[in-house]
Amino acid sequence: MKKNYYFMLPGLLLSLLLGSGQAVAGRLVVHDYFPGYWNNSSYVKRNNNCYNYATNRKTNNYAQPGWASGYRGFSLNRKTCAAVKMGAIKDRNIYEVRPGYNPDSSYNRSYRTLQALVIEPGRDYHWYRRDKNGRWSHKVGWSPATNRDNAGRIIVNPEIADRGGYRIFCGYFHSSSSAMRGGGRRSNGYQGGGHAMVSGTFKYGAQGGLKDFLNVTPEINDQKSTVTILAYSGRQNPTIALSELNNYTQLKLSDSASLLSSNLISPLTVEKDESFIASYLGYSGVLIEDHEGLYFDKGTRVLIKGGIVKILASPEGLKRPGIKMGVDAVNDLLPENTMVKTNMLDVSIEEDILTMARNSGHDL
Prior knowledge:
Layout: E1 4-9, E2 12-17, E3 22-25, E4 28-29, H1 36-39, H2 42-47, H3 50-54, H4 81-90, E5 95-96, E6 113-120, E7 124-130, E8 136-139, E9 145-146, E10 168-175, E11 177-178, E12 202-204, E13 209-211, H5 218-223, E14 226-230, E15 239-241, H6 247-260, E16 285-290, E17 300-305, E18 308-312, E19 340-343, H7 348-359
Antiparallel strand pairs: 1-2, 2-3, 4-11, 5-10, 6-7, 6-10, 7-8, 8-9, 12-13, 14-15, 14-16, 16-17, 17-18, 18-19
């Protein structure tokens, strides 16, 4: 059993995390609800998932429970609460809360960050976290961080929140954050200062080498036009090159792109504060990122769901050059008030892409 010991030193708190061998300097804090840290860069949004957000650790490689310690977690035939729990605990500095815990109780010590885990059976997992204000928030896959559930209600208790198909509640966990780690500062609500050792790269072998596993790097995304199915919150969403679509689907997409680029289609109303990718637990659509300009202007992002299409253009001058893995200060954020929403004339394109993914073994 791992234990934490805390030592007071002049001007700071030193936490020696036994079992991990890691010493963390800094004042331990509970983070605020400060979504801008996670939402103000599209690079950060797409490369940090619910697990990153819940553990308050921005890794920019879509962290998976257990991968930092060489455990598969939610994968293969282990798509259960127990698998995700084991992966998270093996990642170090994450601890399961005693069974029967009441989230409305006073379990809110100044150095503890609370998390909650749910799963959609056999398909995906999702994490929530409790902020300093006592309420809960989360980040669904590539979408913005939010403090609202699927019904648009403020989350006061994840057990009773509208979670869509994520109906199995697995339990509560806790970890910690400090004011000096990972950029956690008062000015950003102490975001990014989590102590949990999480990663989106899989650790192989006793020597601890890291190898990319099922991860599309930003360099590839900046060079190739891709199609991504936004199906999961925790797991990596399936992505293929746009050129890998079959010829018939590519022909239909080309015809639709020509019409969407014309002035013949009437736009739909974009609601105030409407996100390009909605913060919704469950399937969020098919995302086309046309970096090469195969069908749209270079850099255009197109989201198709249920006959509705959203188009987020990349105006010349706002399109940045390729970025390198691990760089936080990127200038790729496009104002979402440039988004256009309209009806998709050929609704079969979405189903064609989903069918192709299912035939490739994805449990969508």
